[in-house]
């Protein structure tokens, strides 16, 4: 049996999930981490500017949250704050007038999206030129992402 035939059932399942969740996709930055954020103290400038938009995509609402928490927050802080942050995120969206289906849906989106930073760290890190700074960044993202996938039991959402 060829690799493609073995992969087909998985592809069909992914397409089914994607079709079911299509209405829930948002425009996501895809690399939402501290290294792509410029903080300004000048009163006339925006407090935050997000740069490096080449990975923009349609994705689950939890994608940028998962990338940020996996890459920019240490594991223990993420563990202690993530449920609060997701709840606050949902509340803020509602305050801004965004129709949201609530915390359970947001948590599920975050769990599914937690697989993305792991894949991002593996595939992207091997394609880029190695530097000391880059190696440290990708190692931090890989460690944070692997632990996030474990903590969120993300593999279970693939069943």
TrEMBL record:
Phylogenetic placement of the source organism: Bacteria, Bacillati, Actinomycetota, Actinomycetes, Kitasatosporales
Cited Pfam families: EcKL
Top-rank taxon: Bacteria
InterPro entries documented for this protein: EcKL (IPR004119), Kinase-like_dom_sf (IPR011009)
Name of the protein described by the UniProt record: Aminoglycoside phosphotransferase domain-containing protein
């Amino acid at each position: 049996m060829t690799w493609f035939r073995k992969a087909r059932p998985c592809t069909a399942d992914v397409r089914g999930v994607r079709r079911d969740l299509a209405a829930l996709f948002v425009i996501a930055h895809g690399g939402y981490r501290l290294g792509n954020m410029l903080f300004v103290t000048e009163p006339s400038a925006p407090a935050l500017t997000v740069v490096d938009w080449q990975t923009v995509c349609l994705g689950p609402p939890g994608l940028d949250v998962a990338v940020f928490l996996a890459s920019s927050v240490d594991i223990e802080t993420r563990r202690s704050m993530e449920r609060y942050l997701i709840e606050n995120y949902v509340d803020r969206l509602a305050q801004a007038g965004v129709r949201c289906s609530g915390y359970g849906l947001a948590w599920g989106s975050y769990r599914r999206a937690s697989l993305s930073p792991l894949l991002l760290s593996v595939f992207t890190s091997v394609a880029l030129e190695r530097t000391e700074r880059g190696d440290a960044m990708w190692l931090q993202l890989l460690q944070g992402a692997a632990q996030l996938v474990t903590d969120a039991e993300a593999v279970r959402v693939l069943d």
